[in-house]
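ESCALATION

Customer reports they have been waiting on this structure for their group meeting. Please prioritize. Original submission:
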Amino acid sequence: MRSSWRDRPTGSWFSRLWRPWVSLHPFRGRGLTINEPKTVGIRDLMASPEEVQSRPARRWLVIGGFFAILFIALIVRLFFLQVVDYKASVETVASNSLRNTTIPATRGMILDREGRPLVTNITTTEIRLSRAEATLHPTIKGSLSSLTGLSVKQINADLLNKQYSPYQPAPIMSNAPAKDVEFIKLHPGEFPGVSVLDVSRRSYPNGGNVAAQVLGYVGPITGTEIKANPGAGYQPDSTIGKTGIESYYEQYLRGKQGTSTLEVSANGNVLSAIKTTEPTVGDSVVLNIDTGLQKALGGYLSSEILADRHSIDPVSGKVPEAINGAAVVLDPNNGQVLAMASYPSYKLNSFVTGLSNSEYSTLIHEGAFNNYAIQGLYTPGSTFKLITATTELQTGIFPADKLVDDAGAFTVPDCKPGTGTCTFHDDDNSAAGEIDLPTALTVSSDYYFYNLGYLFWEQTAKYGQTPIQNVAADYGLSQTTNIDLPDEAQGRVDSLEVRRELHAEAPKAFPKVTWYTGDNIEMAFGQGTTALTPIALANAYATFANGGTRYAPEVAAAVLNPHGQVVIRYTPRVLGHVSLPPSVRDPILQGLEGVVNDPSGTGYAPFHANVNFSLAKFPIAGKTGTASNAPGEEPNSLFVGFGPIPHPEYVVVCVIAEGGYGADASAPVVAKTFNYLVAHPVPPVKLKAELTTPTIPAKHSTTTTTSNKSS
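Update from on-call: job pushed to the front of the queue and completed.
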């Protein structure tokens, strides 16, 4: 039977706890009245020590268990840090205390074919400022500003430039004057965080205005360029070749950068250098360019363009604008580029001393950074007649010795309105009379080639719709030449397919998507939408000059390591062939020789007025070109010359945009260039004989090799 609370022992802690409440119960007796006061104290509410059972073991168990859990958690955490996440932990710790920075390598040199330097390096002094010290000592910016003449705003911009590593001092001033450097060294206490450093910069022994577009320039790398070369090790403060040889042969010229591992404090201050790996100097590139010839060619081109801008075209009565131009000298027997000039141009030294924004904008507006020899697209005019003549004799559509009566104007038989031009006039409206192919080339008869364009269109069933375009492709005119320079433009030869492609890209600029007889006639003498680069035109004539082998133009001859040993020797690259048996080549060559040597030839007068050597001893063949532009514009002026005949050693091409007649503007440049070549024959490429033995053909190698470049 369960007992009630009244039955519990009076001496228990329970009874003591409840006693005050029981004393107030209305049914309780023992002589007390309901209103009798009773004092209640703390002792009445709490049990005495002797009444409570002592349990020390349980207390220790709870405390021990709590600390055991903490210990186990610590062990588990250490296990994850030291075993599971060991690598990540080490990397995190290292990244908090060590930083890797790069030491730029000195770029290799660029040399001409005789080993004469075109691009070298000089050591200049930079003034640099630590970002951390600039923060701790803000007044240092004012001190530097007073010393160097730089504004505080410019110094702040340099400090914030993300191009430079945050753990290296930021360059504040390049090419620092010796007096400023000396003052800083003598007063280090006044310039905390300021350091001076010797750095390598590009130098141009010829003043920086010789072959500027060919050599190219270097500049700070961009984020896009870093992403495009993920495995090359470029850093935000790296420099990279931007154009020309500097860009195309960047992988050799750049060298191998060094590294420095720095210990960095939590607030970003560099404490010490832990490890340093020195950089490796880049390889040098030897070019096929002849420096003397290059200087002469550039001078002839610029002088003629400037003179052309102040002369009157005797035919139109206008002063040509001569907006730009280019000239190229090739060795037709191997594709070597002996010289290449482009106008307008710029001075490479400007990228060392610095270009203002206004100067840079002006050069951009003028197109000075364009290499018009490989990027300019020009209507070829009569220089294209080589292609049409080759097609004529390869197909046999018209014999070379068959006479045509050049009446001065060619009317398309059965021409209907709305089907294009029906009547085509000779350029000067003169009638050449009875002429064969050689004479047609000598006097540059348009009528003769109008007739060929018509015949090919009328006999498409036999020769196809694109026989002339096919031969042009054999000469390499509808593609890039594969020259070892970046950003070469691709030429085009007019056709229905080309017109459709152009219309799809720019409908307003190229509205015509039809092809009639007149279009085939225009294409046959180098008009329409045909547009070629000077290098492609030069290479086509070089192919004819050597008998039909089309080589890739080669600017570079070899790559040398810093010790002068040959890393790669570039050999001629054959890209194709044009069938030129004597029955095809001889009549054409006869006509091209007449251009320069026959008094009726279109190039006779300018050559005889400008050459100072015997054309009998050093015969030259050539072709003038006067290509129409938009109405109101002067025509493009072109001239191609090659010699000596019968075994040509040089091909020279000059193109001047809106320069007027080919005989008036471009022919003198070619004639003067041959003056130089006759007086100064181009010598062979000079390399150390004991180091040039080729082994395995390859494009890229770290041993001495021969390479057939394909890029």
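Sent to customer with the following note: The longest strand covers residues 117-129.
Escalation resolved.
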